[in-house]
Structures are given as C-alpha cells and as structure tokens.
Design a protein that fits this description.
Blueprint: H1 2-30, E1 42-47, H2 57-71, E2 75-80, H3 93-102, E3 105-110, H4 116-125, E4 130-134, H5 138-141, E5 148-153, H6 155-169, E6 174-179, H7 184-204, E7 213-218, H8 232-241, E8 246-249, H9 255-265, E9 271-273, E10 290-294, H10 297-309, E11 316-319, E12 334-338, H11 344-358, E13 368-369, E14 375-377, H12 385-389
Parallel strand pairs: 1-2, 1-3, 3-4, 4-5, 5-11, 6-7, 6-8, 8-9
Antiparallel strand pairs: 10-12, 13-14
Helix pairs in contact: 2-10, 3-4, 6-7, 6-11, 8-9
C-alpha cells in the first residue's frame, strides 16, 4: 500500500513538472526575440570637401569607402559631400557631423586639411564617436581629443614619380605645376615633384641642371571656385602658351589632363600628370604620362574593422607605398599608373627610379636649400618626418610663391 502511494505521488510530481515546463516554453515563445548583436549595422560616415565624382581627391575617398562597405561584413556607409565655401557657404563641419551622428555613425572620416578645426570640435562634442581626419596633425601637436586620429598617405613618393615622368618626357625640361592653396602639405608635395624631376633630369637623362625649369602657380583652393580662385583651365593653358610641355596637377580636379588632351588634339606636343584618382588618365589618355594616386582602402578597411571590434587606438599614420607592388589595391596606400603618352624609354627610366625609391633612395638628403637661399639640409643630412611634414618654403631652383602673402 505504501509503495502504491509513493508511486502515485511520484507520477503527480512528474506531471506537475512537465506542465510547468510546457507553460514556461509557451510564455517564451510568446515573447519577441531580441535581435542578435551580429545583425546590428556598424555605420561609418564621411565628410567630403568635394563631390563624390570629382575625378580626383574626393572620389578616391568615396570609392574606397564603398569598397569597405561591400567587403566588411555588417558595415554601412553614409556621407555628405561638397562641404566647401562654394557649394555650402553657411555649413560647418560640426553641423554635417551632427547629421551623420543622427544617422547612427560611430566612426566619421573627414577628408580635407581645411576640416582640421571643425573635426577637432566635432570630436569633442561626440566623445563616443571615433573620428579620423585624413591629413592634419592634431595627434602630433597634442590637440586631438582621445577619439580623434590622423591618417595620410606618403604622396611625396607619388609626386616624385610624377616629377620624374615629366622630366623624362619633356623635350627641354620646361615643367609647370598647378597647385591649390599654399600650406605645409602643398609645399612638400610640390617640392617632392621638383626633387623627382631634378633627379631624373640630371641622373637618369643626363640633362644640364641649369636647363631644368619648374614653375608653380597656385589657384587659391583645392579646386576652382568661380570669382574666388584662379581658373585652373586658364592656368594650364597659360602654362602651355608659355612653352611648358608638361603640366603636373596638384589640385583635386582634372583640368590639367583635360586641357592637355585638347591641346594635343589641336596639334601641340604637350602632356599632363593628373592627381589623386587612379582613373584620372581616362580624361585624356593620349596626353597622360601617368597618375600618382591615393588608395584609401587599406587604411579605411582596417579602421572600420578596428573601431567595430573595439580595438582602435589613436595614432598619427603617414602611410608609405607597398614597395613590393605599389599598385596592389589591398596593401599599398600610394600607387602610380603609367599613362599611354609616356614613351617606352621614359617608362623604363621611371621604373628604374621607382626601383631606387623602393631600395631606399631618399631625395630628402642634403645639401638642399630653400627658395630664399637659406640652408634646409646640410651636406649628407637626411630630413626627419617632421622637417618634411612642416615644409616652410619651396626649394631653391623653383619658380613660384612660397607663401600666400
């Protein structure tokens, strides 16, 4: 009798437990499931000084970001372009950053030296968002808040290649450079083009040093603003009219190659070296000697992965080409694509020069004087990164302004 009662009680307890479990399972099924963390999009934003299709600086940033979006799982790209005094005269960097943050951006990239102050203030206002300023030196100077970093490619090498190509192709060594506004960055890039031209004119071609002419005209901004800057189209045509047969571009847009192509079609034996964007030669292939370009994908893909994964660390990054293959889109921050107009002889000389750079040739080695004749580097002295970054003047032998006043 006792065994029957114990057996009945055990069965009742089991039925109670089963009923309780069924009730719990039914309640859980009735509740909506919380979204998995992996389903949440990581939104990264970009503030661009020019339009996304400018054929130069801004387009290179935009296309790199679009590739990141397509290849880094769970990422979403948002942007605001044409943030400049001509297109948005009353809009600040801080205002457009607020808009991107409102869209959920946890990382924001700003792409102009002119955005330095605005990026810093926006970073202070949004301490939970990571900011990357493409160019700039706030990390170096200690002005950057903890959530702001700097990144830039060593385009100095690309400009040296541009100068070399120009010197090897020019009939008489008459080279011109159309520059944007005047600051440390633009002076060091223009000087780099001159150093590359000087080296290849004298060492590769065996030209008379006194015969090399390198003339610089600044338009006043990164691209044409009618009524504010010089018209780059007119500047390029004036260069050709003055007897220069190669124009190197230092501005964000492709006027140099467009005008060179027109001049060649009209029978002039002239050439151009565009800038920034690897497809720039397509604007005038028969006039293009080649293009030094930025490849932002390696930096931006790592940046998105690091911020998304919580491993990002503040730094000032000045990234070199991948010397094993400067045109490797996965690894090289700086590339150079030779153009159709570059002769076979000049192309061979340029390849040899690139090989020298890859092997350690440093053109920032003295003696080098500044434009006013003062010593910049003594005999055998090699410039530090800071000496190159903070370039005070154009170099001796160059024609053009070193300062804006």
């Amino acid at each position: 009798m006792k065994q029957q009662m114990e057996s009945r009680m055990a069965r009742m307890m089991m039925l109670t437990v089963v009923a309780l479990l069924a009730s719990l399972m039914s309640a859980c099924a009735a509740q909506p499931s919380a979204p998995a963390a992996s389903d949440e999009k990581f939104v990264f934003g970009m503030v661009l000084v020019g339009p996304i299709n400018d054929g130069g600086w801004s387009q290179a940033h935009y296309e790199a970001a679009k590739r990141v979006e397509s290849e880094v799982a769970g990422s979403e790209f948002v942007y605001i372009d044409k943030v400049n005094p001509a297109d948005r005269p009353n809009v600040t960097v801080e205002q457009v950053v607020d808009e991107l943050v409102g869209k959920g951006a946890k990382l924001i990239i700003t792409n102009s030296d002119d955005f330095k102050d605005g990026t810093r203030e926006a970073a202070k206002a949004h301490p939970d968002v990571v900011f990357m300023h493409a160019s700039g030196d706030d990390v170096l100077t200690g002005k950057a808040p903890a959530n702001l970093g700097n990144v830039m490619g060593r385009m100095e090498y690309g400009k040296m290649m541009a100068g070399c190509a120009a010197a090897l192709q020019s009939a008489e060594g008459k080279i011109a450079f159309v520059g944007p506004l005047i600051n440390d960055e633009t002076r060091r890039l223009t000087n780099s083009a001159y150093l590359g031209a000087k080296h290849c004119w004298e060492k590769t071609r065996g030209g008379d040093p006194a015969a090399l002419q390198f003339t610089v005209t600044w338009i006043g901004f990164w691209f044409n603003i009618p009524g504010v800057t010089l018209d780059p189209t007119q500047v390029v045509n004036d260069f050709f009219a003055a007897g220069n047969d190669v124009v190197i571009s230092g501005i964000d847009t492709p006027e140099a190659i467009v005008e060179a192509a027109k001049a060649r079609a009209a029978g002039q034996n002239v050439f151009a070296v565009p800038y920034d964007f690897e497809k720039a030669c397509e604007k005038g292939p028969d006039a293009c000697l080649g293009v030094p370009y930025f490849n932002w994908y390696p930096a931006y893909s790592k940046l998105v992965v690091d911020v998304k994964g919580g491993t990002w660390k503040q730094g000032w990054e000045w990234q070199s080409p991948d010397w094993s293959d400067i045109n490797n889109h996965d690894t090289s921050a700086i590339g150079f694509l030779k153009g159709n107009a570059l002769s076979a002889e000049a192309a061979a000389g340029l390849d040899a020069f690139i090989g020298e750079l890859a092997g350690g040739l440093n053109l920032w080695t003295g003696p080098i004087n500044l434009q006013d004749g003062s010593a910049y580097l003594a005999e055998g002295e090699v410039a530090t990164d800071q000496q190159v970054w903070y370039m005070p003047q154009l170099l001796e032998g160059m024609e053009g302004q070193s300062a804006s006043n």
